[in-house]
Amino acid sequence: MDDEGGSAAARSRAPSRKSSHARATPLAPERSNAVVAEVFPNQCRVKLRDDGTELLCAFRRSGVLQKGEVRERSPVAVGDLVLARDLGTEHAGMRQGIVEGVCARRNRLYRPAPGREGTQIRHVIAANIDLLVVVASEREPEFSPGLVDRFLVAAQAAGISTLICATKCDLRDATQPAPWKLYSDLGFDVIEVSARRGDGVDALRSRLTGVAALFCGQSGVGKTSLLRALLQSEVGRIGEISQATGKGRHTTTATVLLGGPEGSQWMDSPGVREFGLADIDPDRLTDFFPELSRAGCAKPGCLHESEPGCVALGLARYGSFRRILESLRAGEN
Ligand SMILES: Nc1nc2c(ncn2[C@@H]2O[C@H](COP(=O)(O)OP(=O)(O)OP(=O)(O)O)[C@@H](O)[C@H]2O)c(=O)[nH]1
Ligand SMILES: [Mg+2]
Ligand SMILES: [Zn+2]
């Protein structure tokens, strides 16, 4: 039941029992003709590159997950380049097709999900991403530095550039320093916008034109609202902020590729409460906190774990670094 893995829909290749998710022979990029726009439990919606035609493609499910196996939840993810064949049939108003091959990915952003009996599922949020747009508001919902840090670590570890998009700036108390100032001071790219008032929307649109950008962040920060403003189109659904908790209501429920001007591949994703990190070596975590590497501890090879004279202890994100470090060590992700 909870095994959501499945073999790629390629008919030509028999799924191997051990790693049926593996893209045994990845498709050469020049042979792809479509991009995956949305993934459902047993099928995916793809968009043909030539004319934007959409096909609903089924994929076969594979066998039971083997003990200790790590597998992706689905054989394809949003952003995957695929070779799709139009079957010429229609179902519920959608043209039907089949995915015949999947290209190797440039990168992917994923979170771990526990499976049965020690197996692990990788939930790939999207693949082939140029820029991770980490959307965060100061209020409604409250800024969550720990979550922002985790997205920044995951993106850096995956080799994906980042942009912190500070939303709802219409709600800001301008007399107080913005919570994202820390990040711009550290050298992260930050842009302030308001989907409601329109501030920064044109600047952000120019910045993202032609870019494969994945929008991520807490529920309710306004990812979908911002994408609507950028696309000037009523895509997706917008949710209310809960009066009781000040949080969003998880309105967007799956990653979806929305497109954008001049070949832009803008992707919306469901809001998250937390973001687990997998496959990150705790000893390499400092690489993803540039200020720690720059801090220049007197002791070479300092692990920044309360060693006397460690200058990292005084850094603003030190607490966040330690929390992530402990969770990686505990294998909690
Ligand atoms: N004041 C203000 N409210 C905004 C702004 N952008 C979005 N909102 C409101 O924030 C609420 C949540 O917006 P959504 O776009 O659904 O948020 P989301 O990040 O997509 O949420 P999930 O899909 O649940 O992850 C809605 O009530 C929006 O009207 C903004 O710039 N300013
Ligand atoms: Mg949304
Ligand atoms: Zn140190």
Please give a quick description of this structure.
The chain is an alpha/beta fold. The chain has helices at 145-158, 181-185, 201-208, 223-231, 290-294, 318-329, and strands at residues 34-39, 43-48, 54-58, 70-72, 81-91, 94-102, 108-114, 120-127, 131-137, 161-167, 190-192, 212-217, 256-259, 265-268. It contains six helices and 14 strands.
List the helices and strands and how they pair.
Elements: E1 34-39, E2 43-48, E3 54-58, E4 70-72, E5 81-91, E6 94-102, E7 108-114, E8 120-127, E9 131-137, H1 145-158, E10 161-167, H2 181-185, E11 190-192, H3 201-208, E12 212-217, H4 223-231, E13 256-259, E14 265-268, H5 290-294, H6 318-329
Parallel strand pairs: 3-6, 4-8, 9-10, 9-12, 10-11, 12-14
Antiparallel strand pairs: 1-2, 1-5, 2-3, 5-6, 7-8, 13-14
Structure description:
This protein is α/β, with parallel strands linked by helices and 333 residues long. The protein folds into 3 domains: 29-127, Nucleic acid-binding proteins (OB fold (Dihydrolipoamide Acetyltransferase, E2P)), CATH 2.40.50; 131-268, 3-Layer(aba) Sandwich (Rossmann fold), CATH 3.40.50; 282-329, no CATH class. 16% of the residues lie in helices and 26% in strands. The protein has 6 helices and 14 strands. It has helices at residues 145-158, 181-185, 201-208, 223-231, 290-294, 318-329, and strands at 34-39, 43-48, 54-58, 70-72, 81-91, 94-102, 108-114, 120-127, 131-137, 161-167, 190-192, 212-217, 256-259, 265-268. The strands form 3 sheets. It has a 6-stranded mixed beta sheet with strand order 11-10-9-12-14-13, with helices on both faces. A hairpin with a 5-residue loop joins strand 7 and strand 8 (120-127). Helix 3 packs across helix 4. The radius of gyration is 21 Å and the shape is globular. The two termini are 23 Å apart. Mean pLDDT is 88; it is low at 1-23.
